[in-house]
Specification:
The chain is α/β, with parallel strands linked by helices and 248 residues long. Helix content is 34%, strand content 25%.
């Protein structure tokens, strides 16, 4: 059953109005008709079964049926701050990490990032990245759509650290030194509905200068097992470990 994420303003009493790309997808792509059922979710992570009442061009009216009780979100909010990687790797990260439960993505300019985006290119990229997150959230039956922020500088990232209960950075040197327990320890300590920020470097990794700044800002280095992972694999490993520790 198709799932659509709506703004709270689109809900009216026991119904909702669907417009824009979602309405086009329903009428032109899915060829839906009055009487068909869908799932709609609001910004408060509440989802309902809904029945199409009427379709009028680019506006579709649905009636809300029963509330969906199943919870599909991780018990904590996880933000992935990712050093900009080459090619379309970040698109892949957004898609797969959304399926695994990430709440937010911060594309990050780092010292070893080969990719450099000017304001115009960055704006178009962010728009596309958010679309990918929305489609992945629909496919994986999430209750909310993760946000992809504008591209951050390293200082902007550090300034946000105080908003989180746990701040980690994936650091391969930690694995080489045999210090493998930080992620496990952090997951034992964090409370339900807590917020975690995890920094993942680009292909070249996190520089020594960035490591120093992260440590000074209260971030803790964590290893992701004894093996060295590719930059696009690390977020999936982290989210899978979180799911295993807190959900299974």
């Amino acid at each position: 059953m198709q799932r659509y994420f709506l703004n709270n303003t689109q809900f009216q009493g026991d119904g909702a109005i669907i417009t824009g790309d979602d309405a086009h997808h329903m009428s032109r792509v899915m060829r839906m008709e009055p009487g068909d059922q869908i799932i709609v979710c609001n910004e408060d992570k509440a989802c309902h079964f809904a029945t199409i009442k009427q379709m009028n061009g680019q506006e579709i009216e649905v009636t809300l049926d029963s509330v969906i009780e199943a919870q599909t979100e991780l018990p904590i909010e996880v933000t992935i701050a990712h050093g900009l990687p080459k090619g379309d790797k970040f698109e892949w990260v957004i898609q797969k990490a959304t399926e695994c439960g990430a709440s937010e993505f911060i594309p990050l300019n780092m010292e070893r990032s080969v990719v450099k985006l000017d304001a115009k290119k960055a704006s178009k990229k962010v728009e596309r990245w958010n679309k990918i997150a929305k489609e992945a959230a629909e496919q994986s039956h999430r209750q909310m759509v993760p946000t992809v922020t504008d591209v951050y500088t390293f200082k902007q990232l550090l300034d946000r650290a105080s908003q989180y209960d746990v701040c980690l950075f994936a650091y391969e040197e930690t694995a080489k030194q045999g210090q493998l327990a930080q992620l496990k320890q952090s997951l034992r300590e964090i409370q339900t509905n807590g917020k975690m920020l995890v920094v993942v470097g680009p292909e070249g990794g996190i520089s020594e200068k960035e490591e120093t700044l992260l440590l000074q800002s209260g971030f803790k280095p964590c290893a992701l097992g004894p093996r060295i992972l590719r930059t696009e694999t690390a977020p999936i490993y982290i989210l899978s470990a979180i799911s295993y520790a807190l959900e299974l």
